[in-house]
Amino acid sequence: MVARRRLGRGLDGLLPAAPPPSERPSKNNAAIEELHPGRMQPRVRIDAEALAELAASIREHGVLEPILVRKRSLGGFEIIAGERRWRAAQQAGLKEVPIFVHDLDDEKAFEAALVENLQREDLNPMETARAFQRLVDDFGYTQETIASKVGKERSTVANALRLLKLPEDVAGLIEGGQLSEGHGRALLSAPSVSTMKKLAHSAVSKGWSVREAERQARRAARGDDAPSKKKSSAKSANVRDLERRLSRALGSTTTIHESGKERGQIRINYASFDELDRLIEKLT
Prior knowledge:
Layout: H1 10-14, E1 28-31, E2 35-36, H2 48-61, E3 67-71, E4 77-81, H3 83-92, E5 96-101, H4 106-120, H5 125-139, H6 143-150, H7 154-162, H8 168-175, H9 181-187, H10 193-206, H11 210-221, H12 226-232, H13 237-250, E6 254-260, E7 263-268, H14 273-283
Parallel strand pairs: 2-4, 3-5
Antiparallel strand pairs: 1-5, 3-4, 6-7
Helix pairs in contact: 2-3, 4-5, 5-7, 6-7, 9-11, 10-11
């Protein structure tokens, strides 16, 4: 049995090696106001209800896991991982929180923040996609590198990045939890931005499954004018009249297929060789 792949190296794998126990500082505390939101934070939205629940837990039990920070040049600390705990601690009325201080550059800080959020499943699909793209744009990561860092398959990273091709309206529905990541990927096969938006809102209002969204997007990609094509291919009254007259004259079902201006085919059906011989004699 193949072992389940873990999520990257975790935060421990991203941080500098710990010093020997004799040199290791004890857990530090810092005043709430000394901490500042991180510039490298990939999460944009924080669920208010979930934050209130965390605040209630912190009010009763305290902050059990220290907040990972780095020193700011202007004083105080910048949060690398644990902003939600910090905000919840404020709601809970705490005056100080436990911290771990690490000296990390921007690349390592952002990587640590991303991995921590992925481990806690704190990011919505669009935030994850933007975080992956930031690793590409700011730090030159490849999809393979990102996959290795966060413990995902390369195809998972590629599919996440594809979501950034969605129009803003549709991305907003995914961020708000009204549509899933699967819905977003399905809608990417729609032929235009306007069609994506239309299908996205239909998916929300009608409660489409991902499979139904895929079906509707494929249908749209085949051409919104499919009904008009069918209509244009209908035979005219003159053609139908000619088919009836030829069928009567030949004694066999005859159909006419137009393939262009003044061009087409006549098809005569026969049910036996005897009938075929009769038709040949009649036509020659």
